[in-house]
Amino acid sequence: MSKRVKFDFEIDFTNGGGIQGQDFRLDIDGDDIEDKTLADYIVQDMRLLMVGEVRILNKEIITEKHKRQTINAQTDPSYIDLSHVIHDGLVTYKGLPAPIICDYLSREASRERYAAGTEFQIGKIEMVTNTGTYVDCPFHRYEDGKDLSEVDLEKFVDLEGIVIRADYRKGLAVTAEAFKGRELRGRAVLVHTGWDEHWATDKYYENHPFLTEDAAIYLKQCGVKLVGIDSMNIDDTRGNARPVHSTLLREEILIAEHLCNLANVPDEGFTFTAVPPKFKGAGTFPVRAFARVKQAVS
Fold this sequence. Notes:
mainly beta; 9-stranded mixed sheet; 4 helices; 16 strands; 11% helix
């Protein structure tokens, strides 16, 4: 059934004054909407500036036919999450320990420290840096390479992106031919193989898609900024050599591994962001990787 929210509101402005509204009605997805989400929508929809406190009053959910496009302020459809969820016990790479995620201070224990009705949780995480979806920087491969704290922030953020489709069913090795005839210079090149469908299964760790050395050399020559893949490793792990890591990281071309959801990203017209914490002495760390798809202006 179609649901609508009926409500009054009061808005204060930080530079003085305010406005009120009574008996507003808006279409919603689902059976309810939080006051904060509703307040944010009003401010955005009315294009208000210098907004202070917003009070939602007399809110009521009613069953009524929709009149306009529903409110969908929970997620921005222009953002596509490309990261796997990291949870306690997750195995990212066979042979490396799974993360331990637990309480350092539980909510129950915190009640003894704080005033009545006040409680907190402080978590404790023990893990190797190669966990979940992560970025490699030069220090991961080279002792004299830049670590996470030394790589400029702009190397991780708002990189012009391009997706290269290389279905693993047509072959595991992604060669230089897959990248020829494409605009690559200065971009984050994300290789979509479809292997992420095997995430968290035994198959994910064996005979996975990878880039060949000639592909890495070609990408280096084209001056790319970052190369990512939705596979267990950008190199062929059936041997001990890692020519793709060696070639790219020596040129300070970052690597993102264990991406996901690239099927939902367009070939072009998006930016890529994957920012790790600013650790000294670490060359790899999990990231929240995402694509921001540019919206067409009509």
